[in-house]
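User: Here's a structure from my thesis project, written as structure tokens. My advisor, Dr. K., wants to see whether a designed sequence matches the one we expressed. Can you design one independently, without my sequence as a hint?
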């Protein structure tokens, strides 16, 4: 490559890499695979080496990406937070070993660990308590996310034992296990919110939230894998982690000490297969020189340690041919493009369909008919298309176009400003929207009516059920006539509908399917307002006063109750006997806790602290935050503050469990 074209390529690569760094670290919305990023970075490194005349200290090769975000305080890391050199090839692992033996005479032991696909974090402890948590940031300074980190159960707030240094830093990875990630995405899909592309993005997005009570409900975990400022205390990395485990940290499971590269390869082979059985995602294996003395001898390059390397697995990805694109209309009217594919084996299953998310995604991929596409599993059950193999495009195919009208009811689609999705606005006339609303209404976590999707389809097609309230008008004669229904199944369905009348108000509110009102928000609103009468009268200000209810949710609630059809449905449901306020027993309990003052401390599995506080006030009691001689009871959850406990003992105040508390409410 001649000098002028080399310069052009260097500039182009730098620009692209800066852009992708930003997308990855700041937006948490990467557009390309790690492999592609690493390939570009390597190309740039090679070009810069050949052409030192174009050196630039701000080149992406000279720094790790930055995740610094506005709105967080920044603090410096005690020692820089570096990244790892990485490779996809075994030859390069052998080169890594040869380089080590140039410096080190004699035996080298390696610690092999899994490479967690999450977000790096650095924790500082002082006098045995968590003092501060910083993200990597730009490697020198990081964002202070301590309040969010405190909500992660696997991070000790106080350490066990007493032989730890007065102040030290420990580093690791925050991640979201797959099951929690899938549940969360499922909920977001139901609530009409944008889903996260993979657990790593979900983790990055969560750690950068301003409201730590939302973070507390996200299923995050943390593995600590490096002692940053304590190398002098231990002789090996492995030993250091064993001790950290004793202090209460969760350290990498499945790690192994080995004496040769052959054994390193065996570890890699083992986990390339077994990774699919893990409850979280890994993207490779990290190999570290175990002895701290040898680590010191090897030292660092400007960006990475010479004593460790990451071997990255190729993404679980396959190529296949695009057969066509369907457009599906969901409960909220959001239209999702779904690609039909020639069947292909991917990570143990046959993939025939993949999500394309929205119109922007199709445009970004520049997807054309009959393209050969790359599909990947991003932790979600639904695989997605991540790229197009343009080299295999033939002729001059037409671009895949997003539709302008609803495929089901032909209404023109709308796109709200600032939203990625297109919507079919015909909420009450568009069959899949109606059916899905009814299916949501009867679902297990909502009204828990025992019927299948197929049944709802039958009831709808026969014209028997056009909205949830119609369910309560169904008669035995109407149901028994339906195909596949006999006496027993008919009775069972009607019985299940009858029983749903005692489902508590918060779940009824969730069942209504108000946009952005998921289970948790429904519980908050029901707890705060106590009845549909009060909720539907609430103004935007009153709604946003409720903890965690922002303007977007408030506006959605208001527009739901402004709608004539929704109000009619609610009226009919009230007439049918469905619960639209907290039930009589609870209301008449109104004074069960009068004269009593509660301090609620710690975490509870099924209730947030705010919900419990609401329960106290609804029953006539009072809440305070600090323990004093006026406190009647301390309601203690997991990890209650030790100071509060000590004070309670001193003042002889009874400490009760959640079960005791619920018992009190029931008398
Ligand atoms: S050790 C000097 N061990 O991968 C850096 N890192 O690509 C020491 N990672 O920055 C890092 N699992 O965020 C280490 N078992 C593990 C890891 C791990 C995941 C992350 C970490 C690091 C990145 C490098």
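Assistant: Designed independently from the structure alone:
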């Amino acid at each position: 490559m001649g000098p002028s074209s080399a310069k052009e390529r260097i500039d182009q690569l730098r620009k692209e890499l800066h852009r992708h760094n930003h997308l990855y670290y700041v937006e948490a919305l990467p557009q390309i695979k790690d492999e592609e990023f690493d390939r570009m970075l390597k190309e740039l490194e090679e070009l810069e080496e050949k052409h030192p005349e174009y050196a630039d200290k701000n080149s992406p090769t000279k720094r790790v990406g930055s995740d610094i975000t506005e709105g967080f305080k920044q603090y410096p890391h005690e020692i820089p937070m570096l990244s790892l050199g990485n490779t996809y090839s075994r030859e390069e692992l052998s080169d890594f070993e040869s380089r080590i033996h140039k410096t080190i005479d004699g035996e080298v032991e390696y610690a092999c660990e899994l490479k967690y696909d999450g977000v790096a974090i650095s924790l500082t402890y002082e006098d045995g308590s968590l003092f501060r948590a910083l993200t990597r940031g730009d490697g020198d300074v990081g964002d202070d996310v301590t309040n969010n980190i405190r909500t992660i159960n696997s991070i000790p707030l106080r350490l066990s034992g007493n032989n730890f240094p007065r102040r030290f830093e420990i580093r690791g990875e925050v991640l979201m296990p797959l099951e929690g990630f899938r549940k969360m995405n499922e909920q977001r899909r139901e609530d009409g919110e944008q889903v996260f592309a993979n657990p790593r993005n979900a983790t990055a997005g969560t750690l950068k939230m301003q409201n730590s009570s939302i973070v507390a409900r996200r299923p995050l975990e943390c593995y600590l894998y490096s002692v940053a400022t304590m190398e002098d205390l231990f002789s090996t990395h492995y030993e250091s982690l064993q001790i950290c485990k004793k202090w209460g940290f969760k350290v990498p499971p499945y790690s192994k000490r080995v004496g040769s590269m052959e054994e390193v390869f065996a570890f890699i082979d083992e986990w390339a297969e077994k990774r699919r059985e893990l409850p979280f995602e890994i993207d490779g294996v990290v190999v570290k020189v175990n002895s701290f003395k040898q680590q010191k001898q090897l030292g660092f390059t400007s960006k990475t340690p010479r004593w460790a390397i990451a071997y990255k697995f190729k993404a679980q990805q396959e190529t296949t041919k695009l057969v066509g694109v369907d457009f599906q209309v969901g409960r909220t009217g959001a239209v999702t493009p779904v690609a039909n594919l020639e069947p292909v084996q991917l990570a143990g299953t046959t993939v025939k369909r993949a999500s394309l998310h929205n119109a922007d995604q199709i445009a970004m991929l520049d997807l054309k008919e009959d393209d050969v596409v790359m599909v990947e599993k991003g932790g979600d059950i639904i695989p997605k298309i991540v790229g197009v193999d343009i080299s295999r495009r033939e002729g001059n195919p037409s671009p895949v176009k997003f539709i302008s009208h609803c495929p089901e009811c032909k209404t023109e689609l709308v796109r709200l400003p600032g939203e990625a999705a297109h919507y079919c606005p015909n909420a009450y006339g568009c069959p899949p929207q109606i059916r899905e609303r009814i299916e949501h209404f009867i679902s297990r976590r909502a009204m828990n009516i025992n019927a299948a999707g197929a049944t709802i389809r039958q009831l709808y097609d026969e014209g028997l059920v056009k909205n949830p309230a119609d369910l309560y008008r169904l008669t035995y004669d109407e149901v028994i006539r339906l195909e596949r229904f006999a006496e027993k199944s008919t009775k069972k369905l009607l019985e299940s509908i009858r029983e749903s009348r005692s489902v508590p108000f918060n779940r009824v509110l969730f069942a209504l399917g108000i946009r952005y009102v998921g289970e948790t928000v429904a519980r908050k609103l029901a707890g705060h307002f106590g009845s549909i009468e009060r909720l539907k009268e609430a103004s935007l200000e009153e709604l946003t006063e409720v903890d965690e209810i922002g303007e977007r949710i408030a506006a959605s609630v208001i527009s739901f109750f402004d709608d004539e059809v929704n109000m009619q449905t609610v009226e009919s449901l009230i007439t049918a006997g469905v619960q639209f306020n907290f039930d009589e027993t609870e209301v008449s309990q109104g004074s069960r806790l009068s004269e009593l003052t509660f301090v609620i401390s710690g975490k509870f599995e099924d209730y947030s602290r705010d919900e419990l506080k609401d329960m106290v006030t609804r029953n006539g009691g009072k809440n305070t935050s600090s323990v004093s001689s006026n406190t009647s009871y301390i309601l203690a959850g997991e990890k209650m503050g030790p100071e509060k406990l000590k004070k309670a003992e001193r003042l002889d105040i009874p400490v009760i469990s959640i079960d005791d508390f619920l018992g009190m409410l029931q008398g």
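When you compare it with your expressed construct, this may help: The chain has 25 helices and 22 strands.
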